[in-house]
Amino acid sequence: xGRISRTITLAKVSWQVLRQDRELLVLPVxxxxxxxxxxxxxxxxxxxVSDLSxxxxxxxxxxxxxxxxxxxxxxxxxxxxxxxxxxxxxxxxERMSGGDPTVRSAISRATRHLGGLLPWALLTATVGLVLSAxxxxxxxxxxxxxxxxxxxxxxxxxxxxxxxxxxxxxxxSGLKASASLLKRTWGENLAxxxxxxxxxxxxxVPAVLIVxxxxxxxxxxAVPWVALAVVVLIALGAVFQTALYLYATTGAVPDGFEDSPxxxxxxxx
Length: 269
What we know:
The chain is an all-alpha fold. The chain contains 11 helices and no strands. It has one domain (3-267). Helix 2 (26-49) crosses helix 10 (219-250), helix 3 (64-96) packs across helix 4 and helix 9 packs antiparallel against helix 10. The longest helix is centred in the first third of the chain and has 33 residues, at 64-96.
């Protein structure tokens, strides 16, 4: 079985696990709502005190208030995203450990690990901002090099959140743990990104067809469909990451994945 097809199979198994705790699908929704709240809290005051008719100031530089708002937005959105991803991992871990997770228990476990999650959110946001700045200033070859660095960062940091939530690692030690597991998990790591990407594209097809057939009225169905697909894919990704981390670190197949190709996936590395 190829890595990508195996990842799609693992995604199906992840759904079987997630179906037992569908209330966890609320977490990506809460993440979205919290992100909207963060943006409103930052940009409504910013628009009140800044002249946004032109992004640049009279001196030709970026308006300081706008620049600060942009930086704050990036950092806080990262905090929100990391926290709720951690809550999903916490819920998945509880289920795979034989528990019966709820939204409250998942958020509670994530909250207990804020000491590792907050620094990680700020670190990964900073890396993203630096890479984005380098990409904007680089030529075509430089952009390609920055993209490779970004891919390497994504691969090395793929299991940081499970490391923090499950094994109480800090941001740096979690990154080291994730990177150390890369030798065993790199194939499934990269294949999961491709596989889940393909699932995402497949999920978008019905929405596109609806809009093509029904025109603008089709958006009434297409938009909720896309939103639901995104929520499910985010949750499935967290379940998959949790299972991959548990098997890579313990050698034991997590509950719910006994009949999955997870053991086969890592046995090839």
